[in-house]
Structure formats: structure tokens, C-alpha cells
Amino acid sequence: MTATRDVVIIGGGLVGASLAIALEDSGLDVAMVEAAPATAMPAVFDERNLSFAEATVNALTALGVMQRLRAPTGAIARIHVSRRGDFGRVLLEAKDHGREAFGQVVVARDFGEALESRLAAVAGLERHRGTRFTGFAPDEDGCRVLELAGEGPSRLRARLVVAADGAASGVRDALGIATSRHDYGQVLMVARLVAARAPDGTAYERLGDDGPTALLPRGDRAWGLVHGVAAVDAQAVQALDDAGFLARVQDAFGWRLGRLRSVGPRSAYPAVAVRAAATLAPRAVLVGNAAQSIHPVGAQGFNLGLRDALTLAELLVACAREGGDPGGDALLQAHAARRREDRSRTLDFSHGLARLTSNPGQGASLLRAAGLVALAALPGLQAGIAGGAMGYRGDVPAACRTGGLR
Known about the structure:
This protein is α+β, with helices and mostly antiparallel strands.
């Protein structure tokens, strides 16, 4: 007989794992299906540098994850935004908004290890590792029936299916949910970089025609580099030796940090945004990159996905207390309503910033420069941008605001 679970999470990456932890002690029967075997980390936990907004730090502290990080984090005390070839720049200081930091920079691999350590301590969580979702069988008794392949069971029944399986979501496809896709024509090169000046809490975003060049303050006295290149040039840039690559980044970024001295192994990621036409289906909900993946300019992707997951966790915990149906339409519609403003504003901000900042031409340059000057001069505009950078858009989960889960 096929087992039935209240909630089955498909995907054990950043968002799916965080949701599983948030549902601890909820009283719900929760299972998580993870493609990666027990002997390996999900591919997402690599050398990328994750910029956690203050709201994300609050929530991950409440989940008991931040405390398990082994490597030091890098505090973002200020944000410096400029564009090559344009006049004007914006400098946001956390202290001007009553904060010590807007957020923290964490290495994805270290975060993955902290998540895994915390997951191992979650009592009652049923993990099916080395197991892939392959499709849905016909529904049974008001439950979704999941077909699986790999090391776990061949089928699970779920009152609620949570798709946390990334931008190429198989669950989303099986549900028949359409997507819109925008290819920015950019590839982002990610690496650890050492400069003459060590980090001082400043996160730099230097914008250009081919995408951003960002330098984020890591906790190990190095910088986390994100360097955007035109997709047509990506293969040639990947082939550069370290000296040639550093010269290219130096030219794009400038000399604010003195000479760029060394760079570690490089990884490349195409900048493609994927947006689901809907985030709900009967007894199913999309969260994280399965619902939306966005351009990394502004560093909003994981922060947005975590808020998806924690909003869902809040609703599920309340539902369990009341003896309700975790996959019922009322809960799903409540989730969509609560996420609507944050999702819409964050997606529009990210897409608009990516398009505007990479658009060449004198007219666009003048418009950008005027915007940067206005933003630098008007505290009200700065406050709105700062609030978004800290993860406070719309109806965010209580854990993000207060660090409390319940």
C-alpha cells in the first residue's frame, strides 16, 4: 500500500531544506525527496557567494542554521552602486537605517553543510535521498500520488506536494504550469578573489553593458566575485588564465580596492529568468526557483525563495493546530495572496534593474545617471531600496521580522 504523507517536499536544496526544518514540531507528517544521494551534496551548494538579507539571517537563525556555519560570514555594512561610463553613484549605509548590517555574505558550500547538519537533527523527517520525482499517477482519495525512481520508494501519496526542485522543475512541468523565460544574454563568472584592500563591510555593485561586476565582503578577508560577461564571449573568458581574467575584472571594476591580486577556481552560470505563470495547482504549490528564478543583480533570488517557504510553513503550522487540510484550496489561496506583493515587486525590481543597467546608449546613460543622483540625494527613496535589500517587501513571514518561528 502506498504511504501517505501530509506534506512531500520535492527538492533538498536551499529552499526545500529550509522548509523541512521550519516544519519541525508542526505535528505534520513530512517527507522530502532529494535527487542527491546521501554521499553527495546537492550541486547548488558550490563555491558561490550567497548574499543573505537581514530578514533571511533572522529566519535562518530562528531555524538554527546560522549557528552551525563553520566559516565566518561577511557583514554587509554598506552597499556601493555605480555604473561604468555613467556619472553618479549610490552609497547606502546600514547605520543610517538603524542597522549594523544589511545582511551577511555566506559561501554556498558552507551553508549547505550547515543545513545538512540541522536537517540531520530534525526528528521525524522522512528523507528519500538519491530519489527522483518522475511524474504523477492518478489522484487517490483526495491525495496526489507521486511516482519516484531511485533509492527510495516507487510511490508516495501526499496531501500537499511542494515543488522546490529548481528552475527546471519537473514537478512544475508535470502539473502543466506554463513559464515565461527571459535570457539576458549574459554569463556570470563566480570566484573567490583577493585584492590589495581587504573587505571593510562594503558590497560593491559595478554595472556594465554585459552585466554586473559585484565584489562581496566574505568573512575570510577575501572578496566574493560575480563578473558578468556577454554570452557570446563566455567561452573565451573562461579560457583566460588567471592573470588575463584578473586584468579583465580590473578593467570592469576599476581600482577602488587597489590591484586585484589572485583569483580562485571559476564557475559560470547563464543569467536566465524563469517565471511560472501560476504558483498553485490542486494540492500543489511552487516555491523558490520552481516558482521564479531571477537575475542575480541585487542578490534577491534565495532571499525571495526562503520567504516563499517560510510563509508556507506559517500557514501549515496554523492549519495543523486547527486540524485542517494542509493541501486544501483555502490554504493554497492564502499562500498565493500573502506572497503576491513581495513576489511581484521583487521580480519587477530585479528585471527592471537588469534591463536598465545593461542598456547601452547615451539616452539610457543619462536616465541612469539621473536616477543614481536622485537616489543618492533623497532619503525616502533610499529607505525603500534599503528595506528591499534587507528583505522587507510586502507580507513577510514573522520569522524574518522577529526571528521567531511561531
